[in-house]
Write a structure and sequence with these properties.
about 375 residues, alpha/beta, Nucleotidyltransferase, domain 5, five-stranded mixed beta sheet, about 40% helix, elongated, disordered C terminus
């Protein structure tokens, strides 16, 4: 009695087996690919076609088909071959022209992002295609990873010493000069003491917290703060305004907190920070202990105090209701006091830019720093 054709032997390399085994364990892999991987692994293990078909729940003919492709083409044979279909009505060159068309602004000196209807009309007018639907054009743009309706903003710094200033500040962040401290200083202005006119409605299962839109304004405050970038300690307080006198008064408070040693101040190019005569007088009163480092223009991200302001906004201001300026001040002081109970510095990983000569930066220490929006 004939026993039928003998199944062809399948041999897989160690790397191929490990790759297929990883595929069978992947929870997000398509089911058909997992089944084909199981067929290949069982065939390599010497299982018969009938046994494999029973194990994976397929017909013997289907298992035999994939087993034959494995023998002829290897693991690549488990992938589906390209299927025939209607030839493309829009050639590749036309598709590239449509992508280039989508990169053009909608108006020469006005709106920059064109709509799909405008792109369709423009493509027909220029003779790129005789006819095309909105959905067809959208599929072509998606295939080319083109999203003309999206815009990401960026801010250029015109400071000619941009890299040098960034590198100088990052070096201070990595390690303070011996016998000195590094403070990041800035002001957060326009903090509104807002009271909700009506009470919130508590969240319930399947329903978010509800908040009445109307609110009552009780005035604004300015938060002036300084953070020791290596210890995480914060000095700060609210004022009614942000004037030169307010800033000098705050810096006197900083000088009292650090009565000895050199103090490096990192802050931005605000006009009150740039008043040379004011700070010359201030430094004269404090034995020339203060050294001021200015961030480049349009580079406030390098000032670490901005990270602390972000945390302050999320934990004190977001979704809050303040019935008065005094309450806002109390909660601000409570936030500063809480951070100073167990101060932790930010981890800053940005080490700086390469020098203009192309030579990479070299530091004496190998300490790792990381810039993050959260404290450790």
């Amino acid at each position: 009695m004939s026993r039928g054709r003998q199944a062809q032997a399948v041999k897989l390399s160690k790397q191929e087996r490990e790759s297929l085994q990883a595929l069978t364990r992947r929870g997000t892999a398509p089911h058909r690919q997992v089944v084909r991987a199981q067929i290949a692994l069982m065939a390599h293990g010497g299982e018969t076609t009938t046994a494999i078909a029973q194990a994976v729940g397929l017909s013997v003919q289907c298992v035999s088909h994939w087993r034959s492709r494995l023998v002829k083409r290897g693991v690549e044979g488990l992938q589906e071959a390209a299927r025939p279909g209607r030839p493309r009505r829009i050639a590749q060159a036309q598709r590239l022209e449509l992508l280039a068309l989508a990169c053009e602004p909608a108006q020469e000196h006005g709106r920059s992002t064109p709509t799909l209807d405008e792109l369709v009309e423009r493509a027909v007018e220029r003779g790129v295609v005789k006819q095309i639907s909105r959905s067809h054009l959208q599929r072509i743009l998606q295939a080319g990873d083109m999203r003309p309706h999206r815009v990401r903003q960026w801010l250029h710094s015109p400071d000619p010493q941009f890299r040098q200033k960034i590198n100088e500040i990052c070096a201070l962040y990595r390690q303070a000069p011996k016998g000195s401290v590094v403070l990041s200083v800035d002001e957060k202005t326009g903090i509104q003491a807002i009271e909700r006119k009506h009470a919130d409605r508590a969240p319930t299962p399947g329903r978010a917290r509800r908040r009445e839109f109307e609110y009552i304004r009780h005035g604004t405050q300015a938060l002036i703060a300084a953070m020791d970038v290596h210890s995480g300690r914060v000095i700060g307080g609210c004022t009614d305004r942000r004037t030169q006198a307010d800033l000098v008064s705050f810096m006197e408070q900083v000088a009292q907190s650090y009565p000895k040693g050199r103090v490096h101040i990192v802050w931005d190019n605000l006009n009150t920070h740039r008043a040379q005569a004011v700070w010359d007088d201030f430094n004269a009163r404090h034995d020339q202990r203060f050294v001021f480092h200015f961030t480049p223009l349009h580079a406030s991200w390098v000032n670490q105090i901005e990270l602390m302001f972000g945390i302050y906004s999320r934990r004190v201001l977001r979704h809050a209701s303040h019935s008065s300026i005094e309450q806002l001040r109390e909660r601000t002081q409570a936030f500063v006091a809480q951070r100073n109970q167990a101060p932790k510095p930010f981890r800053w990983t940005f080490a700086g830019f390469e020098l203009q000569t192309g030579e990479p930066l070299r530091f004496k220490d190998n300490a790792k720093v990381r810039r993050t929006n959260k404290s450790r």
